[in-house]
Design goal:
single chain; alpha+beta; 20% strand; globular
């Protein structure tokens, strides 16, 4: 346990990457989530390392409530959490998250963003006789 002010002080200065390594924003392949990319990759590797999913899997859309400033924050008026970051999860029928992908806005591909997300999430389980 710690005091709230101490927690907020630590949380304010919590960084996952060095800001001096920022990629060029004008580049066509600029990664909007470059600050948290390493952390999300570590989570995905850990999720898949310690659990073998059952036969039935699902892809869910989750809105993580966020009031800060990021370019990929979503506004969905029909949801209870109207503002937030949209995350797509590949999860087991028990609810265990096997893989995550943060929605970063429009994809630069010709296919829809939803189609590209489902295709990317299902790559880890292809050829293993899972039902999606």
């Amino acid at each position: 346990m710690m005091k709230r002010d101490r927690y907020l002080h630590i949380f304010r200065y919590l960084h996952f990457t060095d800001n001096r390594n920022e990629p060029d924003r004008t580049d066509e392949n600029f990664d909007r989530s470059w600050k948290i990319r390493d952390m999300s990759e570590i989570l995905n590797v850990t999720f898949s390392k310690f659990y073998n999913p059952s036969e039935n899997l699902a892809i869910d859309e989750v809105i993580v409530s966020f009031k800060g400033r990021v370019i990929f924050k979503q506004y969905i008026p029909e949801k209870r959490k109207r503002f937030g970051i949209k995350i797509f999860k590949l999860r087991d029928s028990t609810g265990y998250t096997y893989d995550i992908k943060v929605y970063l806005g429009k994809d630069r591909q010709r296919v829809s963003a939803t189609h590209a997300t489902v295709t990317e999430l299902k790559r880890k389980i292809e050829g293993r006789s899972h039902k999606l």
